[in-house]
Amino acid sequence: MHLDQKVSLKALNTFGMEAEARYFVEAKTHSEVLTLLNYRHMIHMPILFMGGGSNVLLTRDFSGIVIRISSKGITVKEETATHVFVTAEAGENWDEFVQHCVASGWAGLENLSLIPGRLGAAPIQNIGAYGVEVRDVIDSVQIIEIDSGKQKRFTNAECQFGYRDSIFKRALKGKVIILNVTFKLLKISPSDQGSILKLDYGDIRSELQALNVTVPTIADVREAVCNIRRRKLPDPAEIGNAGSFFKNPVVNSELATSLRHNFPEIPVYPQAASTGPVKIPAAWLIDQCGWKGYRDGDAGVHVNQPLVLVNYGSATGRQILDLANRISDSVHQKFGIRLEIEVNVV
Ligand code: EPU
């Protein structure tokens, strides 16, 4: 392992924020992670664990050690007549893993295609897109406790998944490192795929139609999702961003009723119960406040998807955060809703 000093993190976060790590090291195996944890007890320095850097906003230099988990490996643990249990290491690229599963004929992850980042981050914020959340297919998550160096396997229920949420963002924040994740995916023949695919979210069906697909396979769904994402979301390789900057707010039924009265066109996400709390697209709220396409220096609001804040080149983390606060204040003033930041602000 190489411990480098004064390392620029610019190329290691998809927002493209300039920030310097006092020390930087890459851990490629579980035993390297353990070695680093032991070393940590000797040096008493703050540690920041990074994966693909696709859900983080760096607002300052980091005066400790940045550890990047780069372990690789995909292993089939168990196969039944209907399912496959596949374990993948935290350092795997998320979309390459999805592609591997689709090519192997394992269903469940295709709607989560083209999400940037590394696999180990997926359970932390319970990534979700196009009607699927990763919790739907996670069997278990293997972690290591930072303080004790002990390993533990969390079952799906123990991960306490919620909307863009898990125990790893709350009680266990900064206390564990995710080593690998085991997924339970469905083995299906191409002829059976139509019945289990999730096609009801947004533009998936119309995209499949545009692709001239009548009986879709998991590979078709992946292609449709990739096309939609490429059209709507900025490619971090071209414009710095970390995906949705805020969560979609969930409001109580009282506020929902008064919002519907004042803004009859307000969209809501369909909920299981027709009464009770409802989820509202933050993109709509931000759009209504006139922010779509806004730009102040190199900090901006994306032209196609106002939930995504962008760095056109040399914006700082503080400038993005300042813009986020202005957006949040205006949404609060107009709709009485406080937006919650979804990315990890460091
Ligand atoms: N909308 C507008 N104006 C716009 C764009 C959207 O008013 O310019 C409204 C429309 O009503 C639209 C609604 O916002 O129907 C929802 O937009 P979209 O389908 O793009 O989804 P989203 O709720 O904004 C969520 C996830 C995305 C995920 C998409 C697709 C969160 C925080 N974000 O966005 O996830 O890709 O659904 O499933 O839940 C991410 O987490 O980084 C991310 C990109």
Topology diagram in text:
Blueprint: E1 4-8, E2 20-27, H1 30-43, E3 47-50, E4 56-57, E5 62-69, E6 74-79, E7 83-89, H2 94-103, E8 106-107, E9 128-129, E10 132-133, E11 138-145, E12 151-155, E13 176-187, H3 193-196, H4 204-210, H5 218-232, E14 240-244, E15 250-251, H6 253-262, E16 278-279, H7 282-288, E17 295-296, E18 299-301, E19 308-311, H8 317-335, E20 344-345
Helix pairs in contact: 4-5
The structure holds uridine-diphosphate-2(N-acetylglucosaminyl) butyric acid.
What would you note in describing this structure?
With 346 residues, this protein is of the alpha+beta class. It has three domains: 4-69, Uridine Diphospho-n-acetylenolpyruvylglucosamine Reductase, domain 2 (2-Layer Sandwich); 74-232, Uridine Diphospho-n-acetylenolpyruvylglucosamine Reductase, domain 3; 240-345, UDP-N-acetylenolpyruvoylglucosamine reductase, C-terminal domain (Uridine Diphospho-n-acetylenolpyruvylglucosamine Reductase, domain 1, Alpha-Beta Complex), CATH 3.90.78. Helix content is 25%, strand content 26%. It has helices at residues 30-43, 94-103, 193-196, 204-210, 218-232, 253-262, 282-288, 317-335; strands spanning 4-8, 20-27, 47-50, 56-57, 62-69, 74-79, 83-89, 106-107, 128-129, 132-133, 138-145, 151-155, 176-187, 240-244, 250-251, 278-279, 295-296, 299-301, 308-311, 344-345. Helix 4 (204-210) packs across helix 5 (218-232). The two termini are 25 Å apart. Residues 129-130, 202, 232, 243-244, 247-248, 267, 281, 283-284, 287, 292, 305-307, 342 line the site of uridine-diphosphate-2(N-acetylglucosaminyl) butyric acid (EPU).
